[in-house]
Amino acid sequence: MKCCKFLILLFLSALLLPEYTKGQQSISVDDYPLIGAQVFIEPGQTEEETEGWFRTMRDNGMSVCRIRMFESYMRKPGGWDFSLFDRAFRLAEKYDIKIIGTFFPLTEKTDIGGWKFPESRAQLNSFAEYIKQMTTHFKQFKSLYAWVLINESGGGLKDNEFSHQMRKEWNRQYPQPEYLENGYPVLVDLQDKRFMNYMTTWMLNWIASEVRKHDKNIHLHVNNHAIFSNIAEYNFPEWRRFLNSLGGSVHASWHFTLFLREEYSLAMSADCELLLSGAGNLPWFMTELQGGNNTYSGGRAMCPTKEEITQWLWIVMGTEGKGGIFWSLNPRASGIESGEWALLDFQHQPTDRVTAVAEVGNCLKRHKPLFSEAKKLDPGISIVYIRESLWTETVVSQGTPAAQDGRAMCMTNVRIFQSFVGKRYYPQPESL
C-alpha cells in the first residue's frame, strides 16, 4: 500500500502532456492500459479450457494477451493447419481480448526460448514463408493487435553458414580500423561484439520488412531480455525506425541475480528506466513480467507475492509504461517450464496474484485520462553508458578472482548506495 500511495502521488504531481501520435499503429488512449498475460496454446487443450482462460482474463480486467505462434503446431506435411490458433483468436474476439502474436519459427522441442538467428539462408527463407502465412492468415481476425518480431531478441548467433556469410558482408562494409591492421597493441579486439550488435538490429529489421510486405498497418513490437547483461547489444535508436512500440522481458528469477530479494523493486525500476530511454518517442510496455513460481525453470527459485505483482505494475506505469503482460496466465503442459510461471493455480483458478493484477488494471481504467497522458518527472540525473567500455570490462574481468578484484569493493559501495536509495524512494511491500 505504501508503494501504491507513493506512485499515485507521483502521477498527481506529473505534467500532463498529449499522448504519443506516431501514426495509426501507435498505442492510443483507447488501447491503454495494456494489462494482460500470456495464454499458452498447445495441442490437447479443449475448447472449454481455452474459453475459460479468456473468460478469466475478461472477468479480471485484463484486455490483452500474448500468444506464441508455434510453427511446429501449424506446419503440416503438404500444408498448414491453423485450426488450433483460429479457435483462440475467435474466443479472444468473443471476450474482447486483444492478441499480441509472437513469431516463433520451427525449432527443436527442447528449445523453450526459440532461435534468434537462422543457421542458413534456407532456414531464413523458410522463416519468410512462415511470416507470410502468419500475417496473411491471421489479419482476418479483429482480435489481432500486434506482432512481436521474435521472442527475446539478443544473443544466440552461432558459428554456422549464415553467420559466416553475414560476417563476410559486414567486414567489407565495416573493415578493421587501421591501428588493428598495422599490428598496434590493443587490450581487446571488439569487432566480434560490434558485429553482434549489428546483427541483432539487422535481424529485427529483416523480420519487420517481411511483415510489411503483407501487412502495412499492423503494430510491430519486440521484447529484449536480461537487459543488465545484454544492453550493449541493443541499438534502440535504430530499432525505432521499424517498431511501433518497445518492450522487454523482466523476470526476477532470471534477470535480478545482481540484486537481493529486498532490492527487486530497485531492479525493476532500473529496467524500466532503460526501456523508457530506449523507446525515445515511441510508447513502451513491459512484454513479460513474472507471474508465478519457477521452482525448477529459473535461475533463482521464487514465486512473486501479490504485493510484488502490484508494486511491479505501478513501477512500470510510473515510468510511462503503457501496460504489462504477465508470463503467463496458464502453465505450459510440456517442456522444462511445464507447470510453472502461471498466474492461475493447477485447477485453472485465479490466485491472489490475479486479484492484484485486476485491482491495478481497474484503477488505471477508472483514471484513464490521467494515467494515459502522465509524464514521469525528470529527476535531473542521467547515467551514460558506453558499449565499448562494457564490452572491454566483460573481456578483461573473465577469470579474475573476486577476492583480488578491486571491483568487489566497488560493489560494496553500490550496495550501500542501493540500500539508501531503495529505502528512501522504493519502499518494499509490507509483507516483505
Quick structural summary:
With 432 residues, the chain is an alpha/beta fold. It has a single domain, classed as TIM Barrel, CATH 3.20.20.80. It has 16 helices and 12 strands.
Salient structural properties:
TIM Barrel; alpha/beta; 16 helices; eight-stranded parallel β-barrel; disordered C terminus; 432 residues; two-stranded antiparallel sheet
Tell me roughly what share of residues is in helical segments: 40-55%
The CATH topology? TIM Barrel
Biggest sheet architecture: 8 strands, parallel, barrel
- Overall radius of gyration: 22 Å
Q: Give the overall pLDDT as a whole number.
A: 87
Structural class: alpha/beta
Low-confidence runs of at least 5 consecutive residues: 1-24, 416-432
How many helices?
16
Order of strands, widest sheet: 2-3-6-7-8-9-10-11
SSE sequence, one letter per element: HEEHEEEHEHEHHHEHHEHHEHEHHEHH
Residue share in β-strands? 5-15%
CATH top level assignment: Alpha Beta
The domain count comes to 1
Q: Give the name of the CATH superfamily.
A: Glycosidases
Dominant shape:
globular
Number of β-strand runs: 12
How far is the first residue's CA from the last residue's CA? Answer: 12 Å
CATH architecture annotation: Alpha-Beta Barrel
Protein name: Glycoside hydrolase family 42 N-terminal domain-containing protein
